[in-house]
């Protein structure tokens, strides 16, 4: 026999599978009583006879209850509880079909959210997070600023960052100013999966723009270093197109 807590738990489970409360009480009564007539179910559940008959009919149509006729009277039994798994599967199929139909008729807004990170430690940690979040063998497009602020900010973690980038097969294309050529070739001259071009007249001050597959990031290398990330596929696609225009104009 079930105690009250167990009974309540089972009832909640049956309700979650789509039964109403009367059906659940009748079904549980049959599980506990075995093969019985409707009068015993009425007595056990304390439900009006009409509700018991309606519930038995619904449960039979669901394939959870069966009856036989003995001496002119119906005797009801609950089928194996394993049949409940079929109910759960049917609900899953119905939900999947509903989702498919809804996706055909509604237009969802573009997902967008905005993140801000300040300070060197926060910035470095976020750069590593972005590497891990990005898909393997994707491409990151970078419009650099003046000087070599990224390398300075990454400090001793730059080697680990580069190693992880290569391990994940993430290619980077970088557009810098002519004033960066010497520093870039010194640090990144033979770096794997890293291609750089220089654009005469490019001046973005202390700001770098990183175009990830799913996000657009602005790095402001002032004090403290500040990083803004916009997660918006439409904006990202637009900036990627702008980068490609600059890339065709830039020199190796």
UniProtKB/TrEMBL annotation:
Segment forming the signal sequence: none
Stored Pfam families: TrmB
Q: Where is the Transcription regulator TrmB N-terminal domain?
A: 16-81
Q: Gene3D superfamilies attached here?
A: Winged helix-like DNA-binding domain superfamily/Winged helix DNA-binding domain
InterPro entries linked: TrmB-like (IPR051797), Tscrpt_reg_TrmB_N (IPR002831), WH-like_DNA-bd_sf (IPR036388), WH_DNA-bd_sf (IPR036390)
Record-linked PANTHER family: HTH-TYPE TRANSCRIPTIONAL REGULATOR TRMBL2
**Name of the molecule in the record:** Transcription regulator TrmB N-terminal domain-containing protein
Q: Which organism is it from?
A: Candidatus Giovannonibacteria bacterium RIFCSPLOWO2_01_FULL_46_13
């Amino acid at each position: 026999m079930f105690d009250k807590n167990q009974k309540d738990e089972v009832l909640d489970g049956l309700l979650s599978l789509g039964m109403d409360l009367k059906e659940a009480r009748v079904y549980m009564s049959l599980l506990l009583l075995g093969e019985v007539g409707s009068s015993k179910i009425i007595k056990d559940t304390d439900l009006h006879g009409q509700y018991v008959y309606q519930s038995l009919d619904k449960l039979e149509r669901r394939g959870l209850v069966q009856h036989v006729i003995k001496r002119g009277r119906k005797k009801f039994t609950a089928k194996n509880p394993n049949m409940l798994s079929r109910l759960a599967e049917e609900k899953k199929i119905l939900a999947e079909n509903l989702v498919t139909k809804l996706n055909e008729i509604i237009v969802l807004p573009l997902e967008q959210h905005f993140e801000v990170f300040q300070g060197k430690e926060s910035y470095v940690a976020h750069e590593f997070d972005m590497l891990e979040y990005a898909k393997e063998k994707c491409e990151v497009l970078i419009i650099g600023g003046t000087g070599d602020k990224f390398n300075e900010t990454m400090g001793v973690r730059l080697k680990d960052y580069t190693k992880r980038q290569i391990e994940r097969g993430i290619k980077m294309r970088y557009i810098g100013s002519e004033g960066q050529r010497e520093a870039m070739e010194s640090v990144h001259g033979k770096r794997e999966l890293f291609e750089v071009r220089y654009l005469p007249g490019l001046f973005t001050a202390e700001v770098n723009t990183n175009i990830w597959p799913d996000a657009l990031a602005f790095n402001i290398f002032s004090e403290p270093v500040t990083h803004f990330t916009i997660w918006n596929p439409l904006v990202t696609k637009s900036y990627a197109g702008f980068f490609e225009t600059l890339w065709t104009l830039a020199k190796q």
